[in-house]
Design brief:
This protein is of the alpha/beta class. The chain has twelve helices and ten strands. The structure holds beta-D-ribofuranose and calcium ion (CA).
């Protein structure tokens, strides 16, 4: 089993990254760290505690950064609803919330990385603020990280501007710091995650499961996918555990932090790929049937 910290901003699709990290037998989910992103930090932390609570996940849940490193981008209409979970964040009583750690995310990262005997994996599916702060505060801890699997960016593709994807657009300086960190990186951007969709068939199977979590999943998905949105975040977990189901290439990726429609854009500098070593593994495609099955398997009640 390999130790993993999941950094997220739940967010409807983040829920499925938490679910996969929790159920995947090869993963030992040590902590869920929240970050401000899809909604503010109070809400993403609440939602992280709720999902960990509903799953009965025996991990730490800690609150992370409340704002991007330098500048807060203008507020956006949110596809995740005002509460981050399509209006369903308060379906359950507060007694279902997982305990919140007294330590903040930065200290939780430090503690887990220092104490772990083996290198730790990180999956980051929100803005990269917590990780950038970690790398600036404790650069020596980078050597304890096995790899960071990121949902963010897209090679010259965007969903917030024509060129910029939400997580990188929200905190481009943080994305830039992480890209340049020298840590082993896997990048699941829009190129691959726009393929992360479910069909009527999977929704019907989910319906038949009739578990508390599958019913909750259907509700939050119905509010979200009606806006024609892909379920991006679980790809970052699958890319770690089953890379052979993906098409990828090792490349040199940079982030544009300038103002304007390219702020937060990720692009491959193929000239630098020749002179510089690739700084990340860019995922471009995946087996869609595999994605759909993975989500269903994770939701399937135990018999
Ligand atoms: C990313 O933005 C968020 O809205 C999703 O949770 C995902 O992490 C997709 O661009
Ligand atoms: Ca997210």
């Amino acid at each position: 089993k390999y130790p993993l910290i999941l950094d997220c901003d739940p967010g409807v699709d983040d829920v499925f990254a938490i679910l996969l990290a929790h159920v995947t037998p090869e993963i030992d989910l040590k902590a869920i760290c929240s970050v401000s992103g899809n909604v503010d930090i109070l809400k993403t932390t609440y939602n992280a505690r709720l999902i960990a609570g509903l799953l009965d996940a025996p991990c730490i849940v800690a609150e992370g950064a409340s704002r991007p490193l330098l500048r807060e981008p203008p507020p956006l209409g949110t596809v995740h609803g005002r509460d981050g979970l399509g209006g369903y964040a308060h379906e359950f009583g507060e007694d279902r919330l997982h305990t919140l750690s007294a330590l903040k995310a930065l200290d939780v990262y430090r503690k887990i990385l220092l104490e772990s005997e083996e290198p730790v994996y990180i999956a980051a599916v929100g803005p990269l603020t917590n990780l950038a702060i970690l790398f600036l505060a404790y650069p020596e801890l980078k050597s304890k990280i096995a790899a960071v699997s990121i949902m963010g960016g897209g090679i010259r593709r965007g969903n917030i501007t024509p060129y910029s994807e939400f997580n990188f657009h929200k905190d481009p300086e943080a994305a830039d710091i992480v890209m340049k960190s020298g840590v082993k990186l896997l990048l699941c951007g829009l190129d691959v995650t726009l393929r992360a969709t479910l069909t009527e068939k999977e929704i019907n199977t989910m319906k038949a499961y009739q578990s508390e979590f599958s019913e909750f999943s259907m509700k939050i998905l119905s509010s979200y996918t009606s806006k024609d949105t892909a379920i991006h975040d679980p790809c970052a977990i699958l890319a770690l555990t089953e890379p052979e189901k993906f098409v990828y290439e090792d490349q040199y990726v940079e982030i544009d932090t300038r103002e304007g429609i390219t702020r937060g854009m990720s692009y491959v500098d193929s000239r630098k790929s020749q002179e510089k070593k690739p700084n990340c593994r860019v995922f471009y495609d995946m087996d869609q049937g595999f994605f759909r099955k993975s989500i269903l398997d994770a939701l399937k009640p135990e018999v």
